[in-house]
Amino acid sequence: MLEDHIALTESQNLTSIQSYLLSEEARYPETNGDFTWVLSAISLSAKFIAARCRRARIEAVLGDAGAENVHAESQQKLDVIANESLLRCLGTRPTVAIVASEENEEPMIIHSETEGERPYVVLFDPLDGSSNLDVCGGVGTIFSVLHHDRRAHPIESSPLQPGVNQLAAGYVLYGPSTVLVLTTGNGVQMFVLDPQIGSFLLVEKDVRIPEKSKNYSLNEAYTSSFPSGYQEYLAWAHENGYSQRYVGTMVADVHRILMKGGVFMYPPTEKAPNGKLRLMYEANPMSMLIEQAGGKSFSGLDRTLDIQPRELHERASVILGSAGEVEKVQEFLQ
Ligand code: P6P
User: Fold this and answer.
1) How far apart are the CA of 95 and the centre of ligand 1, in A?
2) Whose CA, among 11, 63, 119, 197, lies 20 to 30 Å from 95?
3) Which of 276, 278, 279 most suits a substitution to test ligand 1, by most atoms within 8 Å of the C-beta?
4) Is residue 70 a contact partner of residue 105, using CB atoms and an 8 Å limit?
């Protein structure tokens, strides 16, 4: 018998992200592998970025790149490296029509006439929280996949679709281990990179966010400039035994909320009246993941995924996490 010849222990995990994606693809006979190819490009780039983050100090690629990105934020050297690796990996995929990055003002038309019946748009924040790199803090990549809208005019406006249209969303957290969390609309799957074999291995299927948890995550330094509802919520949380955790990297803070429950917020402030986080490639992908895990995600009182974007880099306030905890914040905003 086969099992008589297998020396591996039962616990030896050999479900890679590629085998997971192929098994998912097999569930849809009408698909032809294009979508799997796009996600495998992201997985390949994530491995490259992880390796560069691990060696950042050694290779002297920490610190500023001496340039600013489109938002006049100083670009870290690894921002540029991460951005270029994603552009290169996705650029080789014939079914990717457009890519849009936090680091680039305009979307990039990769293949104006793409093969495949439904080409894709991929949006990403290549290295979220990159300023934490210099202090060896967690940083991440956030990505979102949409169908390309060939009817869009101008064609560059194709990405301007509400988050409910996303086909897939996910993030990679470069921390003590490299974790890739992905949804393709059938729940949330978590993979961890095994550096010894260079594969992302499936470690948890159908991840569910805890319904309640007395944790909140936001930058309380700005409390005085939050709208009063948020201030009243924080006063209530302080009196009701809540704990606060905040890294300052959305991917790290949201991953903790997904694992432990609670609520992550970036409210409007005087400096950022619509919040600081970007709708298209931060709020929307995280919102899809959290909703797929059984949580909720709102911008104020509006469901984030329903927002119709007007421009690529527009910002949105964020309240996401355990359904019970998001609802509690909203009670104070009503
Ligand atoms: P603040 C990182 O710069 C980032 O874009 C997100 O990853 C993070 O959640 C937020 O900004 C932190 O912003 O104003 O608290 O430093």
Assistant:
1) 32
2) 197
3) 276
4) yes
Q: Does ligand 1 lie within 6 Å of residue 276's CB atom?
A: yes
263 and 146 in one domain? no
Q: Is residue 2 one of the residues assigned to a domain?
A: no
User: Facing residues of 147 across strands?
Assistant: 120
Is the minimum distance from the CB of 129 to ligand 1 under 6 angstroms?
A: yes
For residue 326, the enclosing domain spans 215-333
pTM assigned to the model: 0.94
114 C-alpha to ligand 1 centroid (Å): 35
Query: How many domains are there within the chain?
Result: 2
Is 7 part of any domain? no
Q: Among the atoms of ligand 1, which is closest to the Cα of residue 129?
A: 2
How does pLDDT run across 52-83, given as a tens digit for each residue?
A: 999 988 887 666 777 777 777 777 689 999 99
Residue 1 domain-assigned (yes or no)? no
